[in-house]
Design a protein that fits this description.
By secondary structure, the protein is α+β, with helices and mostly antiparallel strands. It folds into two domains: 37 residues; 134 residues, Alpha-Beta Complex (Nucleoside Triphosphate Pyrophosphohydrolase), CATH 3.90.79. The strands form two sheets. Strands 4, 5, 6, 7, 8, 9, 10 and 11 form an eight-stranded mixed beta sheet that branches. The protein is elongated and about 60 Å long. The two termini are 31 Å apart.
Length: 181
Amino acid sequence: MSDKKVWKTLEKKEVFKCPFFTLFSEKCETFQKKTLNDYYRMELVDWVQVVVETEDDQLLLIRQYRHGDKQEHIEIVGGVCDPGEDPLAAAKRELLEEAGYASEHWTLLGSSKPNPAIQNNTMFSYFAKKAKKVSEQNLDPFEDIDVFSIPKADLRDYLLAGNVKHSLVLMSLFWYLSKEG
């Protein structure tokens, strides 16, 4: 992939806009000079996820409802980057807001493109080590998040038991496991 290839956008029409994404319909010309009408593409803000290890070797997890599949999910701390916000700053803010924890020890585990076929955004996965409880949660008006912990040593079995279903959360946790040995 040394030469950057990009389809030529012939027309671009905004179909829908909300605070989290904008949906566009684009007319494109492919590398083979074929015209593709109504290719739907979403522009989303970047977001972060945080694998949190406490001072007593516990991993923080959160439980929250997701309306997309109308189920409760086990996840890790995370959220969107505010406009112009550095991803690490967003990760620190989300940890404080969602869990009431802070850490002075941060590592970028990795970054990925959640669905580059139709999305433009990047997800940044961070590891916060030796996190301490410093405040109560400060949730957004529509968030309802339960924070709980499991022993760090139990994570692999917890994941293999199928407790976590969210694929991007799984990726962050497996990155964490691969770096922890």
